[in-house]
Known about the structure:
Elements: E1 5-9, H1 13-24, E2 29-33, H2 39-48, H3 51-54, E3 60-63, E4 74-77, H4 93-110, E5 115-118, H5 123-134, E6 141-143, H6 146-161, E7 168-169, E8 172-173, E9 181-182, E10 188-189, E11 192-193, H7 194-202, H8 205-220, H9 222-230, H10 237-251, E12 256-265, E13 271-282, E14 285-289, H11 296-316
Parallel strand pairs: 1-2, 1-4, 2-3, 4-5, 5-6
Antiparallel strand pairs: 7-10, 8-9, 10-11, 12-13, 13-14
Helix pairs in contact: 1-2, 1-10, 4-5, 5-11, 6-8, 7-8
The protein binds 3-acetylpyridine adenine dinucleotide.
Amino acid sequence: MARKKIALIGGGQIGGVLAQLAALRELGDVVLFDIVEGLPQGKCLDIAEASPVDGFDVCLKGTNTYEDIAGSDVVIVTAGLPRKPGMSRDDLIDVNSKIMTSVAEGIKAHAPNSFVIVISNPLDAMVTLCQKVTGFPHNRVIGQAGVLDSARFKAFIAWELGVSVKDVNAMTLGGHGDDMVPLVRYASVNGIPVLELLERKYNDKAKAKEVMDAMVKRTRGAGGEVVALLKTGSAFYSPASSAIAMAESILRDQKRVLPTCAYLNGEFGVKGFYVGVPCVLGAGGVEQILQFELDAEEQAMMDKSVAAVKELVAILK
Ligand code: A3D
């Protein structure tokens, strides 16, 4: 059976880590594309020269031409500017929508059967634009944000409770912005509600709520926290890990349930927009959107987040 092929559009900070992770996990052969000459070639050569040490058998090719992405099963897009301190993700919309349009045209022309995972910001708007320009079915064009936002939420809970990150289950819904919706009520440690564990830890309901509120706030601002520390760009290890989990679920038909920026057709009361919701990702891309009950407060937060996405998408038109 032929190896799978993964194209990475954008060979910057996230693109480089994506290439390395895809190779380490032997997801398939990797093509790294960038407009900067030498950058993707240099990164691919560097990663490939580690293959005898790490023991992976995949080919890595850096390129500046779209012809090389032909036959890709999955394309992950990170092309575009990252934010700097003081910038919101939304400030990137003008420059990144021009980049996304050219990238989507390249994917449409050269990898017409691929599944596309967008990471470029502002995420929800860039996924919308990518689907529009490629014209691919909605189940084949998705965005990565929720896996990362949820991972941050899970990490904060694990650190607070002193438990393994592996035993924490938690999820965020909505757009990839400050209005995202971390689901407190459904956060658990192996099924035990996190709020109950906090109440027992502090023996004080008000204190437990305060600690949870602080973790929710930190989750919402977690991208900005990294930007403020790095000063020159935004997070890149964790977004790459998150997108690789999504790509792996599709390429290996794992059917994992991952928070995904997916096109909604009435689910969660949203019609005709890309928003973060739990999806089953498998060989068919988005195979299912898992709906469940939101209480009035959660629905109100979701509505607010969706309103922010709609505002952003309106700028594209
Ligand atoms: P960076 O290291 O600047 O890499 C971006 C790369 O895109 C650079 O190498 C550019 O040369 C390249 N590029 C620019 N224009 C084009 C083009 N037309 N075609 C192909 N490549 C091009 O940024 P990064 O890797 O740190 O971040 C990439 C994007 O991901 C940014 O928009 C970030 O805001 C975004 N991001 C998203 C998340 C999410 O969780 C959604 C997290 C972190 C960053």
